[in-house]
Amino acid sequence: MVRLSTLGLVLAGAASLAACGGGQRSAAARIPPATMTQIGVNSYLWRAALDTVSFAPLAQSDSAGGVIITEWYVNPADPTDRIRVSVAILDSALRADALRVSAARQRLQNGQWVDAPVTAATVQRLEEIILTRARDLRRGAGAS
């Protein structure tokens, strides 16, 4: 009988301790770190995109809307070629479909800048670099 009442007390104590937290977590614990910012988009994607396009001066950046547009960048190795990159971050989640990169390219011909095609592989590679950098940033934030 004593054993049964002791078991009952232990179970009641365990149940009351489990209820202390009430399953409630603080707001900071429920919100993933990427969304605990003042910007309107995923902070890892935003920072990774800024890092990736840092080779060119920025023409426009809007962290609330998730838009980054660079000025024309002329490669010193080929001054007859220039490129402008636009990055749009579409979501607060770190996902591949939350990122859109586009690029415009021009070639200098007879003193005039003429539109030239940008290969799809170039745009895909920029997206891959941004996504990889964002994932690395997220892993680094989790380690600290």
Which key phrases capture this entry?
single chain, 144 residues, alpha+beta, Alpha-D-Glucose-1,6-Bisphosphate, Chain A, domain 4, six-stranded antiparallel beta sheet
Low-confidence stretches: 2-29
* Proportion of beta-strand residues: 25-35%
Mean pLDDT: 81
Distance N to C terminus: 52 Å
Instruction: Tell me, briefly, the overall form.
Output: elongated
CATH topology: Alpha-D-Glucose-1,6-Bisphosphate, Chain A, domain 4
Number of strands: 6
The CATH architecture would be 2-Layer Sandwich
Largest sheet: 6 strands, antiparallel
Helical content class: 25-40%
Tell me the number of helical segments per DSSP (H or I, 4 or more residues long): 4
CATH class: Alpha Beta
Write a structural description.
Strands 1, 2, 3, 4, 5 and 6 form a six-stranded antiparallel β-sheet that branches. It is elongated, with a radius of gyration of 25 Å. α3 packs across α4 (120-143). It has four helices and six strands; from the N terminus they run αααββββββα. The chain has 144 residues and is of the alpha+beta class. The model is unreliable at 2-29 (pLDDT under 50). The termini are far apart. The chain has a single domain, classed as Alpha-D-Glucose-1,6-Bisphosphate, Chain A, domain 4, CATH 3.30.530.
